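Q: I'm writing up a methods section and want to include an example of the input and output format. Could you take the sequence below and give the corresponding predicted structure tokens, formatted cleanly so I can copy it straight into the document?
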Amino acid sequence: MLGKLTGFDDTIVAVATAPGLGAIAVMRLSGDKAFDITNQLFPAKNLLLQASHTLHFGSIVADSHIIDEVVVSLYKGPRSYTGEDVIEISCHGSPYIQQQIIDATTRLGARLAKPGEFTQRAFLNGKLDLTQAESVADLIASNSAASHQTAMQQMRGGFSKELHTLRDQLITFSALIELELDFSQEDVEFADRTRLYELVSSSTATIRHLIDSFRMGNVIKNGVNTAIVGKPNAGKSTLLNTLLNENRAIVSDIAGTTRDTIEEVLNIDGILFRLIDTAGIRESNDTIESIGVQKTMEKIKEAGVVVYLFDVNEISPAELQQQVDLFKADKINYLLVGNKTDIAGETAIRSKFVDFPEILLISAKNHGHIEELKQTLVNKVISGDINTEDTIITNARHHSALEEVLKSLYDVKGGMDNGLPGDLLALDIRRALHFLGEITGEVTNEDRLDYIFSKFCIGK
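A: Here is the clean output for your methods example:
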């Protein structure tokens, strides 16, 4: 097994459940001595003689002292998560009991697992490829239906299958082209250039689609920083409270009430919007308020979407145009939202702002058109419906490697257009194969693996 070749030949142990009090906690062991170590602590029966994928009730006993009554789950390799012998001990959720069991296993030869080491062993033993292994961490961290479904799709191997198919086809052509080099004096072609050109063209379209999906994938995985900005008393805090359906921010008729940024998370159709209520933008002699305005400007630059909220009864079209010009100059992704429409009426407001048909009119106080605002926010950050059955790239490492694959495919295509010899085409194909292999883990090194799995939680 690959694990043996990389030094993972010992037995590791960790708490697999979240830290703290709970009804149940699970200790996980993996490695050649997992059964032997647990067997010494579990006198109820000889676990070495029991069948795989069975549960056994009894007590954990160390130094003639009963630690707890437990259920022991047996998974014999290679039919386990890591591909090794795995045992899970389900005990009561006392942190004291958990530590006593961990200490007992380490005294018998187990060592504490590093973050992500169980999944790393699953990868090294061929149970998962690297994209599937990384999706495990994404699944644990998922906090919406969309992020959950995207991680599940990748863990089931949807992304991997696309890459493996492309890689196998390129390997075939690469081998044929390199075979031609052995017969260079005979001037023969083993690789059909027409088929290779068609493959590169279709592959380029596939990779381009995957790269383009990263924008949506990043939104699904990390959410969108959404800054609510505008002049004092435009109703920013009222809008935040209305969107959250709770009184999160202090609302007052006194301009400048909000001095600092307030941040909350709102889930709309599976997308997490990190709403930031900011201090009103205006010049002020108040030192504290001035600091708040400065922070507002910083949040505008960091935001994925800026909701510019304005009082339709106070602002003029010329003043609004000045603000729009500033957003465009700074390449800000903005949304114009006119508030307090209950005062003047929507017909009169539309006439006033006839040159701004994109304005969304609301009444934050009366919940007017709030659902429309939510849908507009979703449309602002994604195009069309989210289909989590499609392959969506959520990992920056994958995105970077795919960019390199795309460059290599363009070079192959350009080389064929210019009639380059096979040895030069083979170099570009090998480069594409290298970066495809980096994504799936067929090309990697120990330092990179340690970095990737160090971001996992301990016990997974």
